[in-house]
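Feature request, filed as a ticket because there's no other form

It would be nice if the structure record came with a short human-readable summary line next to the tokens. Right now we just get the raw output. Example of a typical job, pasted below so the devs can see what we mean:
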Amino acid sequence: MTAARGRPLRGRARVPGDKSISHRALILGALTVGQTRISGLLEGEDVINTGKAMRALGARVTRTGSGSWQIEGVGVGGLAQPGELLDFGNSGTGCRLVMGAVAGCPIDATFDGDGSLRKRPMQRVLDPLTRIGAKAARVGEGGRLPIRLQGARDPIPIVYEPPVASAQLKSAVLLAGLGAPGTTTVFEKEATRDHTERMLSHFGADVTVETVGLGRRITVTGQPELAPAQVLVPADPSSAAFPMVAALVTPGSDIIIEAVMTNPLRTGLFDTLLEMGASIETLAVRRDGGEEIADLRVRGSSLKGVEVPAERAPSMIDEYPILAVAAAYADGITTMRGLKELRVKESDRLAATAAMLQVNGVEVAIDGDDLVVRGRGFVPGGGQVTTHMDHRIAMSALVLGQGADKPVQADDVSFVATSFPGFADLMRSLGADLA
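Raw output as currently delivered:
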């Protein structure tokens, strides 16, 4: 797909439901006793694969309309032995969280995914799950998929400190801890997105969260009877980032993105863009299902380079490729620090982001785990971006082309559907030139 400079973006848009919330709603709905209704679910391939996995594990998962789903749960510890391999496609979140849920149950399951997911590290998840009592009976080379996981017959509550700031790792441990008697505690040195803790409380679990310096101590009481609860999935801030940056770098643009989650542990990109001089106005603030939601008005802006501290990374880890696009259009140097975790995403996102800018005439460098972009206020463009089967690189490349002097081409956009079905149509509805 190719993106070319077009007219200013105008209008209102609702991006798909938040992927993190969608995964967790399906998993926790399956662990309740009774019927859970979900509206606004992201119907991308990643989330659909999580729904298929929960169905294979014994829950009744039914689509009742566009974005509307119903789950008849089996309760904590009630997951059934699956009769098939659990294929998570491209989704690290779905795979790691369901590993946690399975680890606390006396069942076996085989986890697998596509070529991209098979390259991603899983040993960091297996380590705490084996402490809880699960066993990795078969593991791919280097602790990677495919993995056959034997859930704990007698789960043991643990106290765990993750070696890296990772909401997926934390969530896997908390979900496994649901099956253990007593309390399971995770101490994270840096606060990561807290959707699992919020949703556990929403479903009636006993969860406590204490702030400890820059981090937090999260404790969950095991073996609860979770109660079904309605879940309204807000718009995904990671998906909202793409039309947002497209509007910022296209002069004269004025758009409203509706019902975006503004959880403070997910808004690192918004904070950074505001520091860069972005015109982002927060409208109609409200709460639903324990999450903050708002409409965001975004207008074309002159941006300046800034330094983004490493401690901000957990609140915007998925947004660095699109931030790099904004940095390319800014005046001055933008330095993004502490991006080690980007090397083990759907692709080596640090290298892929740098290559995306470089092939389109932007001066960029990788310095250790830092990304340094020298913006000149414009982008020459004209390059073809290798997306490496990574949906966020593909969408970032197409946003990059919307203000570039020459069109920008993404070599493969098929994986965009994993997180943002309808991306091209939504962007075209605002005025983007995508072909």
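Something like this underneath would help us a lot:
Residues 2-16+234-434 form a domain with the UDP-n-acetylglucosamine1-carboxyvinyl-transferase; Chain fold (CATH 3.65.10.10).
The radius of gyration is 21 Å.
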